[in-house]
Structure formats: structure tokens, C-alpha cells
Specification:
With 457 residues, this protein is an alpha/beta fold. The protein contains 18 helices and 23 strands. The chain has four domains: 188 residues, no CATH class; 49 residues, no CATH class; 49 residues, no CATH class; 45 residues, no CATH class. Helix content is 32%, strand content 18%.
Length: 457
């Protein structure tokens, strides 16, 4: 890899989101692909609390899904997001942009609910009754955006092609805006709403007002207030307290905790507390047993599946409904499960190392990721035939909150999901409380696994 290529990669990486980082509307780049598909940003409880914080009518609204089950709007949004792999935040913004449903405390009209996301209502034509109803609206719109991203060449507006739009707010009604979508997500928004200022500008404005907090700490940041012992996890714009030492130490390294001012910590709303250590088995109020692994809860399919992993029934901890709902649903654990907490395997022939979790093998492409995720953990040696039993997943990435820099590069980045968020300067790096000793130097091949994230600072 030449130095010229590395420098070009940096330039492309930093320029890609400069407009969004400065909170200036750029019709060529409205939102990242990752922001549309990142379905893990909110739990059902968090969606409900978000609606309540907006004093939204939807906080108490009940809807019926496609099989006749009645549920809260928050549950419907969460289920649709998880099923269709679309960001629930994206759905919330769509509901506000199309029918002002999120920030409306008064009962909306039946039409607002029936055409909540504007799906099946093309410009200049009547809405198609096939898609009428709140559930159908959020489900169909989510499926539509999923298809926009999965099959971008099937639709009118495409990435890197230029289109002309008339500005309805110009004095002459003839002002033309040329748009060249820089990514598939932006093209998808134009396919859904083929307007710049009376459609997609409104989407961008709501998204940035609700969910862009560029001055805040990224997901995965560990903090404590000056003079206090309590440790908090920053996640989706909230601070989550650790209630026990084991809940923290079983997941994180104390060396990575930042000390910040009390006033800075107070800016964050308090999210769900983290009560249980990693790999705890908990019992829900309904009596179901779950294994907690990272941010997921894995249901035991039977008493036999629970007995097989060798836990003592006396180790089972009681959990509240909020505790349970704070975790995403993982794959159900059956008697066939061999490694319910995951394991490392190394191919005897090639030396390649994989993380085996929920029946999928994720390649670990570099030792920097291996050391950061699995310090002092040795892989099980396996034959190629044994590894071939597992379907291949995406490469395993760093955990949120890790600090990295590219080999021979000067910039620091914070990992957040599938993105690297560049820190604007060394002065910003220092002011946020980061330490150079926690920075991991990564090769170009790891750098290229990530998308560009918004600038911090």
C-alpha cells in the first residue's frame, strides 16, 4: 500500500461528512447508509421513553400488526425495525417528517395515522388503500428503504448521478438545484420523496435536531464525574449507570474510563441501569430464562438446554421487565448449542482465527482486533472441515468507544458501530479526557473496514 493511497484514503474519509459535521444542509449527502440500517440504536423501552419525552400522542397509541396482535406504537416501531433491519430512529424521523406524529401531543386525525409515513401516497394521486393503517405504514416504508439500499440500481435516483430539482420556495419558482447523491441512503430519500427543500431538507433538520450530538461522547465511552466513584456508559445519547462492580469489570477495562466535569455528565439523560455481569443468567417476571451476552439476551429453549451449559440454578438472578427489554433478542439457545457464550477458533491449516457466536463464524482480520476484544483468550484449534460447519459472517470489528489511529497517520478516531469518528484536533482529544496510551494503531486493511463518521469537536 503506497503512502499516496493512504493519504488519499484520509482525505476521502475526512471530506465525506464535512458538511454534516458542520450541521450545514448538503442535498448531496443527507444521511449515511449506516444511519438508515443501524437497527440496534434503540430498545423498545428507549423508543417509548423517547415518545414520552416528546409528550407524543404515540406514547399511548395502540396499533394492530399484520396478524391481529395489539401493541403500543413503540413496540410496533421496535419490531418493524428489528425485522426489517432499519434504524428505529429513522422510522421516528419519517413519522415526524410526513405527519408530525412524534411531537404532536393532541390526538391526530385518522388520516395522519392511516398514512403515518406517507407510503403509497404519490404526489398528485390518491393514496392506495392497500397500505392504509399505522402498522402497514411503518412496515411498508421500512421494507421500501431496505430495498432501496439492497437494490439501488432498480430505482430512479442513484448514487453518483446528477439530477435537477425545482425549488418551490424561490421567488420565480424556477430556481434549479442540482443534486448528485453521494451515497445510497441519500438516493433512497430522493426516491421516496423526490424534492429537496419541501421534503428531504425537513428530514435532515429533524434528524439533526433529535439525533446528532456531535459535541457529545460517542457510544461506548466510559465516564465518571470528577470527585465521584460511579461509572457510566454513554449509549445513544444517554448515560447508563453500572450498579455493581461485576457489571462493569466483566465487560470493560478501568483504564479506559474518562474523568469529566459534573456539568458535562449532567447534560445526558439517564438511561437503563446495567445491573448484571456479562454471561449472567436471569429470570424474567414471566419465568423465562435468558443468558446475557454483550447487549443481547438469549432465551433458553428448554430446561434441558439450560442444564446442558452447566450453570447452577442458584446462580439465576431475577430481572425486571425493564431489565429484560433493555437487551436485544439473540438467537434462542437449544440443546444443540455448543458455545452459547461464543468462542475463538483457529484453523489449523491456514492459521486464520474466527469468533464463533450464535452459530456464525466472523473472521478476525488482524491481531489488533483480537487483542482488543479477547485479551489473553486462547482460540480452540479446529480443522477446516469443523469450521466449514459455520456460515461465514462479516469481519469482527472493534467494540464501540475504542480509540484508534492508522499506522503512520496523525489523526485519532473513535469507533462507533461501523464508523470511525475522527477527532478534530489534538486539543479536542485532550479536552475530552482521552489518553494516548489507550490508542490502538491499526493497519490500512482494518481502517478500510469502516465507513466515515461525523467529526468530533
Amino acid at each position: 500500500m503506497s503512502k499516496k493511497f493512504i493519504l488519499l484514503s484520509f482525505a476521502m474519509f475526512l471530506i465525506a461528512h464535512s458538511a454534516s459535521a458542520e450541521a450545514v444542509f448538503n442535498p448531496n449527502y443527507i444521511i449515511s447508509d449506516h444511519d438508515v440500517t443501524n437497527w440496534q440504536t434503540m430498545t423498545q423501552v428507549e423508543i417509548q421513553r423517547f415518545l414520552e419525552s416528546k409528550n407524543s400522542f404515540l406514547a399511548s397509541y395502540l396499533t394492530t400488526d399484520n396478524i391481529g396482535v395489539t401493541m403500543k406504537a413503540s413496540e410496533a416501531i421496535y419490531k418493524v425495525a428489528v425485522t426489517n433491519l432499519i434504524n428505529p430512529r429513522f422510522i421516528l424521523v419519517l413519522l415526524q417528517k410526513e405527519q408530525s406524529l412524534v411531537e404532536n401531543s393532541t390526538p391526530p386525525t385518522p388520516r395522519q395515522l392511516d398514512w403515518a409515513t406517507g407510503y403509497g401516497c404519490p404526489d398528485g394521486a390518491a393514496c392506495n388503500p392497500r397500505w392504509q393503517g399505522f402498522w402497514k405504514q411503518i412496515n411498508s416504508a421500512s421494507l421500501q428503504f431496505r430495498d432501496y439500499l439492497d437494490n439501488p440500481n432498480l430505482y430512479t435516483y442513484k448514487q453518483n448521478q446528477t439530477y435537477k430539482f425545482t425549488n418551490p420556495y424561490s421567488s420565480t419558482k424556477k430556481e434549479i438545484t442540482e443534486v448528485t447523491p453521494a451515497n445510497n441512503a441519500t438516493a433512497a430519500l430522493y426516491n421516496y420523496t423526490p424534492h429537496v427543500y419541501n421534503g428531504n431538507y425537513n428530514f435532515w433538520r429533524i434528524w439533526n435536531r433529535w439525533f446528532t450530538n456531535q459535541s457529545g461522547y460517542p457510544n461506548g465511552t466510559l465516564v465518571r464525574a470528577e470527585g465521584e466513584n460511579g461509572i457510566w456508559l454513554i449509549e445513544n445519547g444517554r448515560k447508563r449507570p453500572f450498579l455493581t462492580k461485576g457489571a462493569f469489570s466483566s465487560r470493560f477495562d478501568i483504564k479506559k474510563v474518562l474523568t469529566i466535569k459534573k456539568s458535562e455528565l449532567s447534560r445526558y439523560e439517564t438511561g437503563l441501569a446495567i445491573r448484571f455481569p456479562q454471561y449472567s443468567i436471569v429470570r424474567s417476571p414471566a419465568g423465562s430464562l435468558y443468558l446475557l451476552v454483550d447487549d443481547k439476551k438469549r432465551l433458553f429453549a428448554s430446561a434441558e438446554a439450560f442444564k446442558k451449559i452447566g450453570y447452577n440454578p442458584e446462580e439465576v438472578l431475577n430481572a425486571t421487565a425493564d431489565d429484560i427489554n433493555g437487551y436485544l433478542d439473540g438467537k434462542v439457545i437449544t440443546t444443540e448449542e455448543v458455545y452459547p457464550t461464543g468462542t475463538l477458533m483457529q484453523d489449523k491449516k491456514t492459521g486464520g482465527i474466527f469468533w464463533i457466536n450464535e452459530g456464525v463464524k466472523s473472521p478476525i482480520v488482524d491481531s489488533t482486533i483480537l487483542k482488543a476484544r479477547f485479551k489473553n483468550k486462547k482460540p480452540i484449534m479446529a480443522t477446516t472441515a469443523q469450521l466449514d460447519k459455520y456460515p461465514l459472517g462479516a469481519p469482527l470489528l472493534f467494540a464501540d468507544g475504542e480509540l484508534v489511529k492508522i499506522d503512520k497517520g496523525l489523526s485519532y478516531y473513535v469507533v462507533e458501530g461501523k464508523t470511525l469518528r475522527p477527532i478534530k484536533s489534538k486539543a479536542v482529544f485532550d479536552s475530552l479526557g482521552y489518553s494516548v496510551s489507550n490508542v490502538i494503531t491499526i493497519p490500512v486493511k482494518v481502517f478500510q473496514l469502516y465507513q466515515a463518521g461525523d467529526i468530533i469537536g
